[in-house]
Amino acid sequence: MSHNYKMTRAYNEQNWITSIDDVHRGLKCNCTCVDCGSQLIAKKGAIQANHFAHAPDDQKAKNCKWSYETELHLLAKEVLSNNKQLTIPIGNFDPYSFTLIFDHVEIETPIANSKRIPDVIGYSKGEQILIEIAVSHFCETDKVKEYKRLNKNAIEFDFSNFVPTSDVITLKEVNDLFENSNAKWLSIAPAGYIGEICHAHERQLIKDLMNERDKFLSEFEHEKTSLYSAVTLLREQLQNLSYTKNNLEVIVKNDEEKIRSAYRKEYKGLVENIKYASQKLAQINENIASRSNLKNEIDKYEARLRSELNFKNQDLISKKKKLLEDINQLNSVKSFTIKENKENAIKAFQKEKNLLVEQFNKSLESEVSELSFRKLKLESEIIQLYEDRDAVQKSVNEKQLRLESITVQKHEIESERDRLELLEKSIIKQNRLYLNAAKNIERITPDLKELTRKAGIPWPFTHDLVDELSKEIKP
To answer: What is the per-residue DSSP string for 100-164?
Structure first.
């Protein structure tokens, strides 16, 4: 710690510990250092806090080992001596606080049948309590063993984390230290008021721990039985699902191959049919175009025939006129006969022409009807092929849904397995806690048995606590 902390306690002329506030200023204080024994000067001014300082020309002061720890020890003893009360923990495991009132307090007094000198000895209801204050040095093992051998109540307060808020340590800070610092029992007497309440607290904790353990074991057994049943059921379901999955995978694989083969075959046939239908359609279109061209040629031929007929009619008219001019001498009967023959020839030609056109039209309509029927049939076949393809796709989708459902069930089984693994880890952790508790009980059991033996108290437990707590809970 820093050397700037001030000294406020020293020995007076009667060799008693005194406060800076109770002496005269300067060398008139007649005080000496509690460590090196050299003369001190009482500095009591308006700027700095009142404190003692070594005389500058004192050679002893050069080897002085006074520190704030020395000051803290003195103030702690002063607080206990003035207050005559102390807040102590009852028990070593899960303790509760208890305020102890002292009838009498002794500072640095040797205890009977020993050379040990505790920092403070307090007396309450005729019972002796040894108080040790640890700042940087804690009680050694030999000292603790001797306190236990003498069946003493000995408690140690840990002031190692204390940091003063100023260059002077106050009594209020030390009083707060006793209230808030950690304290542990070095030894507890087997008989007496403190030993009775401490041991009663420990026994109750052990009983509570055993009840809690029994309750946990009961719940664990119930949970374990339920889990075993669930695990057995899950294993059966998993086995069934695994068997079903394998069968489905084989079925799906076989069906998939069959579907793919059939689909490829159907698709290939469909492509060939469409190709064939396209070729037929092209031929029909070519036939229709050819028929259209033939009709055009017939129309042209008819027009040419009409043209030639007109030309012949004109020629006949011309010849008629010439003939009339040449034979105007013929009689009326001959003229009528010639005229009638001419009309009959025209009617016969017209009838023959109409018959040819009608036959051509009927043949053309038959060809067109047949081509239209073939076109409709091809369209129907194409529609059927599309429907077959959709059915195959629907079957593939159903197989895919079944496979996804199996995958979801697999994930659920894996989640349940992870939950069981977490439960097993929790049980392992609980076993470790019970083993730690068993070690602590095993550590204090000899002392408890020795105390009960010396006190003439029968051992309250009919079974071995360590064995009970050491039993491993199996998942």
So the answer is: EEPSEEEES-PPTTS----SEEEEETTEEEEEEEESS-PPPHHHHHHHHHTT-EEEEEE-TT---
Cβ atoms of 446 and 182 closer than 8 Å: no
Q: Which residue's entry shows tokens 């095993």?
A: 442
Query: Which residue, among 65, 75, 66, 100, has the nearest Cα to 18 in the 3D structure?
Result: 75
CA gap 310, 1 in Å, rounded: 145
- Quote the CA–CA distance of 72 and 66 in Å, as a whole number: 11
Contacts of 67 (CB under 8 A, 6+ apart): 1, 5
Q: To which residue do tokens 């704030």 refer?
A: 68
Q: In the prediction, which pLDDT does 187 show? A: 92
- If pLDDT is split at 50, 70 and 90, which confidence band does 434 have? low
> Which pLDDT score is estimated for 367?
67
Distance between CA 356 and CA 351 in Å, rounded?
9
Contact 61, 55 (CB under 8 A): yes
Model confidence at 463, pLDDT cuts 50, 70, 90, reads low
- Extract the tokens encoding 428: 């392992």
Amino acid at 150: L
Could you give the CA distance from residue 357 to residue 371 in angstroms, rounded to a whole number?
A: 21
Is residue 94 left, alpha or beta, with left meaning phi > 0 and alpha meaning psi from -120 to 50?
A: left
Confidence grade of residue 141 (pLDDT, cut at 50, 70, 90): very high
